[in-house]
Design a protein that fits this description.
Elements: E1 2-5, E2 8-11, H1 16-29, E3 36-38, E4 45-50, E5 61-66, E6 72-77, H2 79-88, H3 93-100, E7 104-108, H4 113-128, E8 134-138, H5 145-158, E9 162-165, H6 171-178, H7 187-202, E10 208-211, E11 228-231, E12 236-239, H8 247-257, H9 263-267, H10 281-290, H11 292-304, E13 312-314, E14 317-319, H12 321-326, E15 350-353
Parallel strand pairs: 7-8, 7-10, 8-9, 9-15, 10-12
Antiparallel strand pairs: 1-2, 3-4, 4-5, 5-6, 11-12, 13-14
Helix pairs in contact: 4-8, 6-11, 10-11
């Protein structure tokens, strides 16, 4: 359906369901070995592919078939059927290589251990598939400066181009206006990470594929995911190549490849985004010890809430950060962690997108 506007035409924007169906057909046509199952609904072989639905924690699972006319037949699985099929899934190297060839590949690199393994692994596979990989990093403005330096260092060492995106307004100013993020109100992820990446990806022409470092072992909630799906914000296929890796596999891969240790390991916290939504007293005490300037900015955010909200709750009570600032505990972590070191010169290209 088209509509006239002036002397040109504007094509109707495709719905998510239509875009998902096209992506499901494309993935099913590749016959990915790790996602091929016998459909419990129709007993035909097909490809498992999940679908994002707003407000639903567990994405609905479908087994997708390509019929004789080359069109998509999708059987939705529910309950025990879906659970049984998910237990059969895996993702093999050959599957990832096939998916790399579907479009321009981007590897999401936060600076943590999982995304470190992802980027290093994807560099190997993209090179073998003769595809140019780009690392994509969201500088949340709420992270530690050494993480930004680390990301550039790793990409330089691996020889992968790096694109850095940023939110329109920094976290601290946004939090003063919108309020403190919490597990029930996680506006920070969408605003600081997803939106900047979405804006950048919209400027890239042609098909693209996103590769992330999500793993089932991270949480019971993520264990319910599937390794390949269609991303509603990025409007492309999203792949988790290390989805089934264990913690030991992550550590073994880092040692075997002699990859540089992430600052997040030494700091024992999520160093690339410090929005405070999931941190406890120990985390804030460590922050005060290693990055007092960030701690003070969080205090300013609390002050802007005029006593209504605080980052820290204990036993159902608000604990203002100023209390930790005035009388920090003696068990603070080692303050000698290096901060803000500049990355050495590298040959890799870094593209900053504001």
């Amino acid at each position: 359906m088209t509509g006239q506007q002036g002397d040109g035409t504007r094509r109707r924007r495709r719905s998510y369901d239509e875009a998902w169906a096209d992506a499901a057909l494309l993935v099913a046509s590749k016959h990915l070995r790790g996602l091929t199952v016998t459909c419990p609904a129709c007993r035909r072989k097909g490809t498992a592919f999940s679908k994002w639905v707003k407000g639903v924690r567990e994405k609905p699972l479908y087994v997708c078939h390509v019929n004789r006319r080359g069109c998509l037949d999708a059987c939705q699985l529910k309950g025990e059927q879906a659970a049984r099929v998910k237990k059969q899934l895996s993702i093999f190297t050959e599957d990832v290589v096939k998916l790399i060839r579907l479009g321009r590949p981007f590897a999401l690199f936060s600076g943590g251990k999982d995304s470190l393994c992802l980027v290093a692994r994807m560099c190997e596979l993209a090179k073998g598939a003769r595809r140019d990989l780009t690392a994509l990093h969201a500088e949340t403005t709420a992270g530690f400066p050494e993480v930004e330096a680390y990301v550039q260092t790793v990409c330089g060492r691996l020889g992968v181009p790096l694109t850095v995106v940023r939110p329109n307004r920094d976290f601290f100013e946004t939090a003063k206006r919108w309020g403190i993020p919490s597990p029930r109100s996680r506006w920070c992820c969408e605003t600081l990470k997803v939106a900047p990446m979405r804006r950048y990806l919209q400027t890239t022409e042609g098909p693209k594929v996103i590769f992330d470092g999500i793993r089932a072992a991270e949480s019971t909630n993520r264990a319910k995911y599937t390794p390949v799906w269609y991303h509603p914000a990025f409007k492309c296929i999203s792949v988790s190549p290390i989805f089934y890796w264990s913690d030991e596999q992550i550590n073994r891969y880092i040692r075997r490849k002699r990859l540089p240790e992430s600052p997040a390991v030494k700091l024992n916290t999520s160093a690339e985004c410090w929005c405070g939504a999931y941190q406890g007293r120990d985390d804030f005490e460590a922050l005060l010890s290693t990055h007092p300037e960030i701690f003070d900015k969080l205090m300013e955010v609390e002050n802007a809430q005029k006593g209504k909200y605080t980052f820290l709750f204990e036993n159902g009570q608000q604990v203002p950060l100023v209390q930790l600032r005035i009388a920090p505990k003696s068990r603070l972590r080692d303050p000698s962690v290096a901060r803000g070191e500049q990355a050495p010169g590298t040959d890799a290209k870094t593209h900053i997108v504001d």
